[in-house]
Amino acid sequence: MPMNSAAMDVGSASGMVAAGSAVRVQQLRKVYGSEPQAVTALVGVNAVFQRGTFTAVMGPSGSGKSTLLQTAAGLDRPTSGMVWVGDTELSQLSETKLTKLRRSKVGFVFQAFNLIGALSVQENILLPLRLSGQRGDAAWIQQVVDRVGLTDRLTHRPAQLSGGQQQRVAIARALATRPEVIFCDEPTGALDTQTAGEVLALLRSVVDETGQTVIMVTHDPVAASYADRVMVLADGEVVHDMPQPGAERIAEHLASLGRRPRATQEG
Ligand code: ADP
């Protein structure tokens, strides 16, 4: 079975039976603060992210993208609703168990790379394993290092690398524990167009060739066009959820949001 055939299921986001899901959120609601200043960032989002798929999460600033990423990754707790990473439902977990789950089942790639400057490339890649007390699978680590093209850079420090190379290190680090899912927050936001293309092609290949699951927040329709699926948020809800239709159509969908009557954020 081709790895990304699960992408065919992406339209069934509200179908809650998903044995092959890497991440699943149900009635996810997040309210920041309390009345009268409460802000509802997510109004009750349902979504399934199948294993071996690549989803772009888009939408205007303030639409809830980061909140969705953070609650789905167990970095922040929702006000109500449920999140599964693999088979584990997060609301039942203690802080210690949640931290453990984040270290082993979730990878992160940020716009600003967030590498540790004092560590070598190899040490940065192995850090999540060290933190979670695992030795790791040597064959897998070798495969990851080969895939991201870093074999001859392992003893370098991050400052000795270009932005694109640093982001490749961050992707290798995110893959090291062989997580259920890699969450990317604007991973190409700090890169030039060509380097961004290389990083996106790498993310695409880790989905296609190693069967990983990627959920990526981006503003860029071209970046989103590397995904299988585009989920668009507005005012804390999913307003489009579609197989990736190409950069031009994605841009049109985003533009159409400007013409949508805006719901109030309060309450
Ligand atoms: P996006 O990532 O799409 O820009 P966010 O998830 O960051 O959107 O924010 C969604 C809404 O929640 C916005 O109205 C934002 O101002 C609000 N928000 C986000 N984080 C906080 C916070 N820590 N405290 C209060 N409001 C917040």
Report the order of strands and helices.
EEEHEEHEHHHEHEHEEH
Bound molecules: adenosine-5'-diphosphate
How would you characterize the largest beta sheet?
A: 6 strands, mixed
> Mean pLDDT, rounded to whole units?
89
Low-confidence stretches: 1-18
- Spatially, the strands of the biggest sheet line up as 6-7-8-3-9-10
Shape: globular
CATH topology: Rossmann fold
Q: What's the number of domains? A: 1
Task: Tell me what the structure shows.
Helices cover about 30% and strands about 25% of the residues. The protein is globular. β1 and β2 (about 40-50) form a beta hairpin. It has a single domain (about 5-255), classed as Rossmann fold (3-Layer(aba) Sandwich). It is built from eight helices and ten strands. α5 runs parallel beside α6. With about 270 residues, it is α/β, with parallel strands linked by helices. The chain has a six-stranded mixed β-sheet with strand order 6-7-8-3-9-10, sandwiched between helices. Strands 2-1-4-5 form a four-stranded antiparallel β-sheet, covered by helices on one side. The structure holds adenosine-5'-diphosphate (ADP). Adenosine-5'-diphosphate binds next to β2 and α1. Adenosine-5'-diphosphate binds near residues 32, 61, 64, 67 and 265.
Give a quick precis of the structure.
By secondary structure, the protein is an alpha/beta fold.
Identify the notable features of this structure and list them briefly.
globular; six-stranded mixed β-sheet; 24% strand; alpha/beta; Rossmann fold; binds adenosine-5'-diphosphate; single chain
